[in-house]
Design goal:
The structure is a single chain. The protein has a domain of about 120 residues: Rossmann fold (3-Layer(aba) Sandwich), CATH 3.40.50. The chain contains nine helices and ten strands. The strands form two sheets. An eight-stranded mixed beta sheet has the order 3-2-1-4-5-6-10-8, with helices on both faces. Helix 4 links the parallel strand 4 and strand 5. Helix 1 crosses helix 7 and helix 7 packs across helix 8. It holds the Pfam family NAD_binding_10.
């Protein structure tokens, strides 16, 4: 089935690896980029691909509200949305919060509140969490705390807020859809909210993974991250937090396994507190 995908942050390194993979599956992609100067680079990614590539020049930093994001969704009419945008440390703290928190949350809310959008995937990172999960070592927790409080405090503040909005609102929509239209005949058409959480991004070939309940400190190639996005979207019923680093397991098999096991690495978070955090935004 052909899908119409809105890729927010289409000029990023992961997105440029991802775009041909999506098009190769005959999925149609609207790549949202910040400036017209980036357009030629993106258009080249669609050459010879069966899927249709469109380019939308619209800066994520200009999206200030759910209503702003809703206008873009109405223009593109996607059934899947991928959030892969980021300030990249440019523009200081204010720009990081504007893009990685405010615009990300706006697109998350608008997507989840749009019935025709069936999947929303955000690219986060391993240490984006408030609680220490039961499978982390003391060293894992210490390293995560250092990253989140000393190295990338503003980025952490932005990403955890966006992750929590996705988690709370997607679970609420899933609960509503389960009541009204539960899965039948083995087909799960309920909403899928996905937070893909790689380790430190590196260049290199795509390969196998270690996925699920893993510690921090691992690395994930950008190529593997792009492949993981495709695998998560292509796997029916894949939803929740997926922690993925380079390893030995076949990537597609890993995503399918985690989905079949309903393994969600958000499960050790305090969901009630998470709802309070989201309500306060």
């Amino acid at each position: 089935m052909a899908h119409n995908i809105l890729l927010v942050g289409g000029h990023g390194k992961v997105s440029q690896l991802l775009t041909p993979l999506l098009l190769a599956r005959s999925w149609n992609v609207t790549s949202m980029i910040r400036t017209a100067e980036q357009k030629d680079t993106i258009e080249k990614l669609g050459k010879g691909q069966p899927g249709k590539l469109s380019v939308l020049v619209s800066s994520a930093a200009d999206v200030k509200s759910e209503a702003d994001a809703k206008k873009i969704l109405e223009q593109v009419d996607p059934d899947w949305v991928i959030w892969a945008a980021g300030a990249g440390g440019k523009g200081g703290e204010s720009n990081t919060l504007a893009v990685d928190r405010d615009a990300a949350i706006a697109f998350t809310k608008a997507s989840i509140h749009t019935p025709s959008v069936k999947k929303f995937l955000t690219v986060s990172y391993l240490a984006s969490r408030r609680n220490r999960p039961s499978w982390w070592t003391d060293s894992d927790w210490e390293n995560a705390q250092k990253t989140n409080t000393e190295v990338l405090p503003t980025y952490y503040k932005a990403k955890i807020a966006a992750d929590e909005v996705l988690t709370v609102l997607s679970r609420e929509r899933l609960e509503e859809e389960t009541k009204s239209a539960p899965p039948s005949d083995g087909v799960d058409e309920r909403f899928c909210g996905i937070s893909l959480r790689p380790g430190t991004l590196t260049d290199g070939e795509a390969g196998g993974v270690t996925a699920g309940r893993i510690g921090v400190g691992g690395k994930t190639t950008r190529a593997t991250t792009a492949e993981a996005i495709v695998a998560a979207l292509a796997t029916e019923g894949a939803r929740g937090w997926f922690d993925v680093i380079d390893g030995d397991e076949n990537l597609k098999d890993a995503i399918i396994r985690l989905s079949q096991e309903s393994q969600d690495t958000a499960d050790d978070e305090d969901f009630e507190k998470m709802k309070e955090n989201v309500a306060s935004l």
